[in-house]
Amino acid sequence: MSKTTAAITAVQGYIPERILSNHDLEKMVDTNDEWIFSRTGIKERRMAAKGEALSDFGVKIIEGICKKRGISPLEIDMVIVGTITGDYRFPSSANVMCDKAGCKNAWGFDLSAACSGFIYALDIGRVYIENGTHKKIIVIGADVMSSIINYKDRATCIIFGDGGGGVLLEPNNEGVGVIDSVLRSDGAGREFLLQSIGGSAEPITKENAESDGMYVYQEGKTVFKHAVQNMADVAVEIMERNQLTAEDVAWLVPHQANLRIIDATANRMGLGKEKVMVNIEKYGNTTAGTIPLCLWEWENKLKKGDNIVLASFGGGFTWGAIYLKWAYNTN
Ligand code: UT7
Predict the structure, then answer these.
(1) How large is the average pLDDT for residues 41-51?
(2) Ligand 1 atom 29: the closest Cα is on which residue?
(3) Which of 11, 81, 201, 245 qualifies as a FRET site for 294, CA 20 to 30 Å off?
(4) Which residue has a Cα nearest atom 1 of ligand 1?
């Protein structure tokens, strides 16, 4: 029997119904479908309904996971939520989700790592499974980006969308599950992608409440350069240190920020397009939501034992890669 690993045993996504297309955005800011699609690969994104908060996404995700796995929410030990758009600054959305979904025996917390929120959270969850103290952990990556986007800023409003997903982690002794991780951060990148007002550095006041700092600011070109380099670097590093060739890798699950960044990462790994999960066209960049949303959409194609590399880059800067072996067949 091999050592205990943390295996993904269920996956569930959630996307709100309302669609905001590139053509809709043409009516809101000075942009056009051709520019957006050719620069990013995005055609449309989803928007939360009025009054729909992150915890509402989370409840749907938790309920879906429990239903698929045939378990009660009372069996969940822990819920970790990668997000930058929680219901409140405090308490954490994990607490709100557990209350609303009936996970009365779970503890949990939110984790702020922007687009790398899901993979950071996944790696923390796996430690609690590997050490034997927890048996069922739900790891969620989700964001309601529409709550912090300025729909007058064409540099950001064309990219982001709402949505997310989650996975159930359980102990496994068959050699599948999370095998390795490479996680990185560099706070010097904070000035290029941030929401500057609303924290203790610059609390909300009457004077600044309507200023642009209330929303996401991104210096796209600089972030792009760092993303292309760093996301590919960690993906290649995790392949090398696990002696994985391009043939060994069944799937790359990249953060969906820009199709050009995804292509560059796949090229550096030596992977053809058929091995790369891409749904940016439909959902845009859902920040911590992109990777679990991909796993959910591709679930039926995944086979037990598949070598999968997750890779992300985002605000912070934060970035990283996780190597896992898929743990189940759906059919
Ligand atoms: O997920 C977290 C991490 N984030 C990322 O990884 C995002 C990384 N950055 C990007 O994906 C890209 O930088 C963007 C998609 C944000 C922007 O693409 P770009 O190719 O870097 O464009 P740019 O900002 O250099 O702008 C090129 C031109 C400029 O015009 P000039 O100066 O060349 O005349 C912009 O003013 O395109 C103009 N422009 C636009 N035009 C139409 C900028 N935004 C728009 C727009 N529609 N929405």
Answers:
(1) 98
(2) 155
(3) 245
(4) 257
From ligand 1's centre to the CA of 223, what distance in Å? 10
Structure tokens at 199: 């924290």
- Active-site residue 66, yes or no? no
Active site (annotated) includes residue 115: yes
- 98, 115, 157, 294: the active-site residue: 115
Single-letter residue type at 118: F
pLDDT band at 2 (very low <50, low <70, confident <90, very high): confident
Residue nearest to atom 14 of ligand 1 (CA): 220
The C-alpha R_g of the chain, in whole angstroms, comes to 19
Contact at 8 Å (CB) between 60 and 162?
Answer: no
**Which of 189, 196, 190, 201 has its CA nearest to residue 212?**
196
Structural domains of the chain, with CATH: 5-175 (3.40.47.10), 179-325 (3.40.47.10)
Q: For residue 221, report the distance from its CA to the centre of ligand 1, in Å.
A: 7
In angstroms, the CA 218 to CA 224 distance is 10
Q: How many CB atoms lie within 10 A of CB 195?
A: 18
Q: How confident is the model at residue 301 (pLDDT cuts 50, 70, 90)?
A: very high
Asked whether the beta carbons of 162 and 286 are under 8 A apart, the reply is yes
Per-chain mean pLDDT for the chain: 97
Tokens of 178: 């999370």
Q: Flag whether pLDDT at 281 surpasses 90.
A: yes
Please state whether the predicted TM-score (pTM) of the whole model is above 0.85.
yes
Mean pLDDT of 163-168: 98
